[in-house]
């Protein structure tokens, strides 16, 4: 599950790299749905969809958010 999360997050960040800094919601990649704020460098929600009605909520802790901020460089202006 963690491997699919990282892969989907990489795809989402690749797509957002060419967009203006800001808050993006409902980004769908590999079954994961993300909310990402590129201005703040934060994944504010992520969940994995299983079928039509079941979702697994993934809640990030502060340390993981720190690692995400370190891994992806945002052009802070």
Nutshell version of this structure?
By secondary structure, this protein is α+β, with helices and mostly antiparallel strands. It has one domain. It contains two helices and four strands; from the N terminus they run αββββα.
Q: What can you tell me about this protein's structure?
A:
The chain has one domain (2-71). Helices cover 32% and strands 35% of the residues. Strand 1 and strand 2 form a beta hairpin. It has helices spanning 2-16, 62-71, and strands at residues 23-29, 32-37, 42-50, 54-58. The protein is globular. The protein is an alpha+beta fold and 77 residues long. It has a four-stranded antiparallel β-sheet with strand order 1-2-3-4. It contains two helices and four strands; from the N terminus they run αββββα.
Name the features:
35% strand, alpha+beta, 77 residues, four-stranded antiparallel β-sheet, 2 helices
Main structural class: alpha+beta
Biggest sheet character = 4 strands, antiparallel
- Estimated radius of gyration: 12 Å
Q: Separation of termini?
A: 34 Å
Counting H and I runs of at least 4 residues, what is the number of helices?
Answer: 2
**Helicity, as a percent range:** 25-40%
Shape: globular
Please tell me the total number of domains.
Answer: 1
Low-confidence stretches: none
> What kind of assembly state do the chains in view correspond to?
single chain
Order of helices and strands: HEEEEH
Q: On the 0-100 scale, what is the average pLDDT?
A: 77
Q: How many distinct beta strands?
A: 4
Strand order of the largest sheet: 1-2-3-4
Quote the beta fraction: 35-45%
């Amino acid at each position: 599950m963690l491997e699919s999360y990282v892969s989907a997050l990489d795809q989402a960040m690749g797509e957002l790299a060419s967009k203006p800094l800001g808050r993006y919601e409902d980004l769908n990649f590999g079954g994961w749905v993300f909310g990402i704020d590129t201005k703040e460098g934060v994944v504010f929600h992520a969940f994995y969809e299983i079928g039509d009605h079941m979702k697994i909520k993934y809640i990030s802790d502060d340390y993981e958010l720190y690692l995400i901020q370190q891994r992806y460089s945002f052009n802070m202006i």
